[in-house]
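Researcher: Here's my situation. A collaborator sent me these components and asked whether they could plausibly form a single complex. I don't have experimental data yet, so a predicted model of the whole assembly would be a useful starting point for our discussion.
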Amino acid sequence: MTAIALPEGAEEIPFVGYNQYIGPLYHLPEQEGFQRFCFRALDRHMNSVGAVHGGMLMSLADIAMSRAARAGTDAQNSSTVSLSCDFVSPGKLGEVVEARVRVTRRARTTVFLSADIVSDGRVLLVASGIWKIA
Amino acid sequence: MIPPGYRQTKLSDPFEISLGPIYEAGERPNRAFALLIDERHVNRRKVMHGGMMMTYADATLGALAADLSQDVVSVTLNMQSQFLAPAPLGKLIEVMPELTRRTRSMLFIRGDFTVEGEIVMTASSVWKVLGQN
């Protein structure tokens, strides 16, 4: 199988701990006001029925939204307060799975965000959440 | 080291196997689960990563969904997670998933995730039992 190419401008994010263990994860150039992140679905990201594991999709949402919450601020840390995820369709092995994040509202220490996780033109997951930044 | 009172859970999803082991106690469908938080599960602040907490929630709430549907495959439709307190490296995070309501094709399952008796996360989820209209 020929691997599907990563989108143009993909840069691997240096990580430690969980993010490194489940990675590699990539940052993509901002597009149409969306902050973008992606990973390639490998065997170890899958569930037993051949779809990308829901936990991996929620992890991408968490990582992407957390970084988007901090972007453009002096905040060093961001903590997830709440996150709601709808699982719209399954992710497939080998595909590049991309998170497209938008900030709904930025208050002083609270940020409201939403994200679509997409792959090959399909929406896999829709997320909305609240982060605290400091 | 297996926590006292627990045994290892049989996992089948490669993603969960790569992050396990997960431990369990009790009999189906009344199993409690535990995970020992190690270096693979934490962020740079050395507390359990939100993504890992949701993966653990998906695995354990999904285990109850499987128990209740005689192992017919069920898929997650929605999961809502609230993060109340950090879960530090080296601690055991425990949950006893609860069925809130069951219809013919849907399961509503929630869980309070605790470290040393303190709730660190709550999750509620909706599951679709495949093949049931």
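Model: Some features of this prediction you could bring to your collaborator: The domain at 11-133 of chain A is CATH 3.10.129.10 (Thiol Ester Dehydrase; Chain A). Chain A has a mean pLDDT of 94.
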